[in-house]
Amino acid sequence: MKDFFENPALLIGVPMLIFGLAGAGLVLAAMLPQPQTATGALETGRFAPPGGEAHMGPTPAEYVNIGLLLAAITAVEVAVYYVDALAGLLVPVLIVLSLSKFLLVVLWFMHLRFDNRLFSTFFTGGLLLALAVFIVVLATLKGSIT
Amino acid sequence: MEYAGPTHELQPMETSTGVDNRKLLMWLFLASDCLFFGALISTYLLYRDRSVVGPFPKDLYDIPFTSVSSFILLMSSVSMVLALAAIQRGDLRRMRVWLVCTAMLGILFLSGQAYEFTEFYNKGLSLHQNLFGSTFFVLTGFHGAHVTVGVILLLSIWVRSMQGKVTQNDTLSVELMGLYWHFVDIVWIIIFTFVYLLTGK
């Protein structure tokens, strides 16, 4: 595992792969068919008439369930941190768990799963640029994530 | 024709993109903020182990405490999205309750951060002590500043709502507030993993 941290290809490749998958997930989610609103409008609340249903997003109960799932993932993260037997897998496991929380919030709480693709495109663009900054800085100046 | 004066109600509008420009602007802002925090996190990771004097991350981090802070911020995201769901249903009373809940959880998170900063300072870490201190305080400090702005905005919407200036037609205001708040949350999700868990052991 020590080799993993000292190998720039793995060190850069793994986070790049994971965040790349995140970006791809966002794009794919945005490409899925968008739910129709109750009024037949394309978009969320903005163009909905007063009193009209904004969009067919999650229900409050589903929001609470997602919140509980986020809390559970956080608990698993902390547990993994303290389990010595998983020390070798700490980096990939924590990154995957963090990515799961990230996607849950972005896709459901921020409604990218249900919203216009233009928003997903802009946000994914920002994320990929941030990832590029992350990789370039750490690779050129020999930083590491652990 | 007599000018009717400004109205706080959002009127339906047509745009060339088919989406509301205010929401588009918020997403562009969040995309640019990704770059901002991406640079700060990269800088932290780069300089964290290059301090020549202590204290170092392993000497200071209190993971259980930070885990509770993370839980609080995650729950504030839940209450924020419930506030949005409430105004979309036209239930302004519950929207106000959830907005206040979100603001209170945000304040609780900030209190925890203030406590953590104080503890670290008392143990010898300052902005000028070493590279770890400089990058840690700048990164988490800017995140805390974002949370502070969010709390102020939440309370301002709540006050306006109490004054009757926020109606069911103002769904977009709460939605934009929610986008900002959830973004602050996802930044903390990344910070918690990369700054605390991956480097604190």
Q: Secondary-structure blueprint of this entry?
A:
The complex is a heterodimer of chains A (146) and B (201).
Chain A: H1 2-6, H2 8-31, H3 60-82, H4 90-109, H5 117-140
Helix pairs in contact in A: 2-4, 2-5, 3-4
Chain B: H1 21-47, H2 57-60, H3 63-89, H4 92-122, H5 131-162, H6 171-197
Helix pairs in contact in B: 1-5, 1-6, 3-4, 3-6, 4-5, 5-6
Report on this model:
The complex is a heterodimer of chains A (146) and B (201). Chain A is 66% helix and 0% strand. Chain A is mainly alpha-helical and 146 residues long. In chain A, helix 2 (8-31) runs parallel beside helix 4, helix 2 runs antiparallel to helix 5 and helix 3 (60-82) packs antiparallel against helix 4. Chain A is flat and about 40 Å long. The model of chain A is unreliable at 36-54 (pLDDT under 50). Chain B is mainly alpha-helical and 201 residues long. Chain B contains 6 helices and no strands. The longest helix of chain B is centred in the last third of the chain and has 32 residues, at 131-162. Residues 1-9 of chain B have low confidence and may be disordered. Classes of the chains: A mainly alpha (146), B mainly alpha (201). Chains A and B meet through helix 3, helix 4 and helix 5 of A and helix 1, helix 3 and helix 6 of B.
